[in-house]
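In the previous chapter we treated chains in isolation. Here, by contrast, the input contains two separate entities that must be folded as one system, with a combined length of 290 residues.
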Amino acid sequence: MTTLYTTAEDAEEAFYEAIGRADLDALMATWSDDEEIVCIHPTGQRMDGHAAIRESWRSIFESNPRFSVHIRSKIRWQSLLLCVHSVVETLYLENDRTTHGPMLTTNVFIRGANGWRLLSRHTSAAAEASDGENDDLDTKQHTLH
Amino acid sequence: MTTLYTTAEDAEEAFYEAIGRADLDALMATWSDDEEIVCIHPTGQRMDGHAAIRESWRSIFESNPRFSVHIRSKIRWQSLLLCVHSVVETLYLENDRTTHGPMLTTNVFIRGANGWRLLSRHTSAAAEASDGENDDLDTKQHTLH
């Protein structure tokens, strides 16, 4: 059964929930089937296409069976067919009270026949001096006309 | 005088040309005036807004008065109001025959009253083992309907 995400936020939430469960199938289901897709990991590796992206996340889950990613949504630009979120991620490892990150992420979503799906994800480590940690939690949302 | 970029490619070309000339005004003119804008540097610093982005590039030009960035465009997703380019950048420093990079970049453009402008730029260093260097130079372009 294919889940239809009616908003980019729904697809994004499902993506991060899948990470929290280390559920590879659920994670891959949040990506677009119709378009070429790109996932850039904080290691500097760029994965193109479903097979490469799936394999990279399989490897991540194998090395880190239990972790979760909390996002503070910062800026969202929304148009009819594309939606871009610029977010700050913090990683929590199970049995480890310290947090990891922050990571800076640009998530791009596309609206297709199956609703909104991930098209591109670009993540890189934030500098220690990043102001991201101190920003307020408000989401800034822009709908383009 | 405001230049009107009729395509995202025009705005992107003007952005990289401005880097090559270390022309801060020209570089900033390729960014959207109407929207909140974000520039994530490979140092892991996230700049929000015109003033912070301008200051970061002023500092970059001050430290590196002459360098150029060549891009190999990889994947482009185009909709009516937003356009996303996933590109691989190589840096050339003047008087230095070696190249630097590759860098992985996600450039997001928006169409407004003044044509296409930069909305978000996310750059991070590619892993040494990135397959980016070996990919062909063809641009993959997708127009969404």
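Chain B touches chain A through 38 residues (CB under 8 Å). Residues 8-21 of chain B form the longest helix (14 residues). Compare these points with the single-chain example from earlier in the chapter.
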